[in-house]
Amino acid sequence: MHDLQDEFGHRYQDARGVRAFHAPGRVNLIGEHTDYNGGLVLPCAIDRGTQLLVRRTAARSIKLASLNFDLIAILSPDEAGTAVGDHWINYPLGVIAQFAKRGVTVTGIECLYRGDIPNGAGLSSSASVNIVTAVALNAVFECGFSQLELVHMAQAAENEFIGLACGVMDPYAIAMGQRGHAMALDCSTLECDQVPLDLDGHTLVISNSNQRRELNDSGYNTRHRECVTALEIVQQSHGIEALAALDMATLASQASAFAGQDTAFRRARHVVTEQARVLGACEALRAGDLAQFGQHMCASHASLAQDFDVSTPALDALVAAAMAVPGVVGSRMTGAGFGGCTVSLVADTALAAFESEVSARYHRETGLTADFHPVVASDGAGERPL
Ligand code: GLA
Question: CA gyration radius for the chain?
Answer without folding.
Answer: 21
